[in-house]
Amino acid sequence: MKEYINQYLDRYRKADYYPWHMPGHKRQDVFKDDFWENMFLRDFTEAEGLDDLHEPELFMKDSLEQMQRFYGTEKTYMMVNGATGGILTALYACAPEGASVLMGRNCHKSVCHAVSLLNLKPEYVVPELLPGTDIFADITPEQMEQALNELKKTDRLPAVVVITSPTYEGVISDICGIKNVLEPYNIPLIVDEAHGAHLPFMPKRNLSAVAAGADLVIQSTHKTLPSLTQTALLHVNRKELVPKVERYLHIFQTSSPSYLFTQSMEKAVVYAGNHPEVFDAYRKRLKHFRKKCKELRHIRLLQPKQTCYAYDKGKLVFTVSGVHPAESGTDSRNDIPATGPWLAHVLAAEYQQVVEMAGTHHVILMTSFADKKKAFEHLYEILKHIDSELTEAADKAGRNADQMNHVDSMSVLPDMENAVLCSTGFHLPEQVMTPGAAWRLDSSREKLEEAEGSIAADYVYAYPPGIAVITPGEKIDGQVIRDITQMVETGLNMIGVEYQTDGIYIPVTEPVR
């Protein structure tokens, strides 16, 4: 037998790829002790003289109580199966089976799966798009109030509200304002803060949903703090939810939680809490890097100003435009359009810089305080070189971007007909039945181009980030078909579709013609 995983990862490590992606420790010895070197020696289980994460009485109890005091919560729990387990626990604790849920359409697939398992009736708040991009903006208190007023007219008030903040791209919503809107209805607010575990340690701590008073907050410590992959925290700010949360934690957490995971979570939080200087230095590095990126012409760093409530500047979202010219002496028709997947490939294949994800026209690079000044400087020089090789794409009349005067201070996107997320907003398909009901029906595969009028039997999304283009129970229309087709053709990693020699297939239930 061979160690296939170990051998491949060893080769990958020696290739010296730089991780502009999670986990937040960036494969560095952040703590400067023996933790990373002695994993097996630290791998314990619930034995005599040790403690049980599910029924803590000794040192785990002390650790959790310390976190509770630091974060100012009613309870804080360590999650050893990631934010997904925390999201499932939170929704089961708040929503009885068959209830209504009001959720952002940009919620992660784990929220959608909980909706299907509980056969909840989803109502959606669809965020607007940041100007000039295909990236969701924040969900505002005004949008939430309008949605609740509409639902109240037909006696469909939700049992729970779920939103994502910050988003994958770093957009932060006004959690305190949204919580105030929900207060008269006594509706609990769940915030998927998977990408915001670092926010309580940044200068503006109140940008975290924990400090803003959301009832349940889930953070992935491994994304932006130096913790092992698959670790997360679940924070509870509403006392009456504690018994239900603990009931479902026994279901959605393994009965043998990893001591390595719990140690890495504690070390990450304690280190971050004891070393505010590393976050101050990190903030300064980001500020300097962002200022330099204003010099780039075709690779534009997302720099929201007054277009959303707040923004996590640790997320580096680069939109890309133009074309990469063909080799000298060849036909210009061989020019390569500059897309998100193209930029991600060039960064990895030619410069050993691996991004977190590639969207249709953008890439996301995740940073943490473990990213040093030298890494940012090297990245900028690479981007500057790639940027210098790009040229403007001409429109159908032969005008370039300068002539059209369409340069935006935030980003530039090609004017594409039928874009996945067009500038007018996200396309929301008609919901025919609940996701849970459609999920439970028999399904078959239908060719995408012939599926108009059918009902989707499963979620279809690009992963990452895992935001559904269509959910089970929604009708497949022409725009959905165009969106999915373009996403596939752009090279995104699509989940929920099947590729066959004669085309793309999608799971459907009974057609509605």
Automatic annotation (TrEMBL):
<keyword id="KW-0456">Lyase</keyword>
<dbReference type="InterPro" id="IPR036633">
    <property type="entry name" value="Prn/Lys/Arg_de-COase_C_sf"/>
</dbReference>
<feature type="domain" description="Orn/Lys/Arg decarboxylases family 1 pyridoxal-P attachment site">
    <location>
        <begin position="8"/>
        <end position="307"/>
    </location>
</feature>
<dbReference type="InterPro" id="IPR008286">
    <property type="entry name" value="Prn/Lys/Arg_de-COase_C"/>
</dbReference>
<dbReference type="InterPro" id="IPR015421">
    <property type="entry name" value="PyrdxlP-dep_Trfase_major"/>
</dbReference>
<keyword id="KW-0663">Pyridoxal phosphate</keyword>
<comment type="similarity">
    <text>Belongs to the Orn/Lys/Arg decarboxylase class-I family.</text>
</comment>
<keyword id="KW-0808">Transferase</keyword>
<dbReference type="InterPro" id="IPR052357">
    <property type="entry name" value="Orn_Lys_Arg_decarboxylase-I"/>
</dbReference>
<feature type="domain" description="Orn/Lys/Arg decarboxylase C-terminal">
    <location>
        <begin position="427"/>
        <end position="505"/>
    </location>
</feature>
<keyword id="KW-0210">Decarboxylase</keyword>
<protein>
    <submittedName>
        <fullName>Aminotransferase class I/II-fold pyridoxal phosphate-dependent enzyme</fullName>
    </submittedName>
</protein>
<dbReference type="InterPro" id="IPR000310">
    <property type="entry name" value="Orn/Lys/Arg_deCO2ase_major_dom"/>
</dbReference>
<dbReference type="Pfam" id="PF01276">
    <property type="entry name" value="OKR_DC_1"/>
</dbReference>
<dbReference type="GO" id="GO:0008483">
    <property type="term" value="F:transaminase activity"/>
</dbReference>
<keyword id="KW-0032">Aminotransferase</keyword>
<dbReference type="InterPro" id="IPR015424">
    <property type="entry name" value="PyrdxlP-dep_Trfase"/>
</dbReference>
<dbReference type="Pfam" id="PF03711">
    <property type="entry name" value="OKR_DC_1_C"/>
</dbReference>
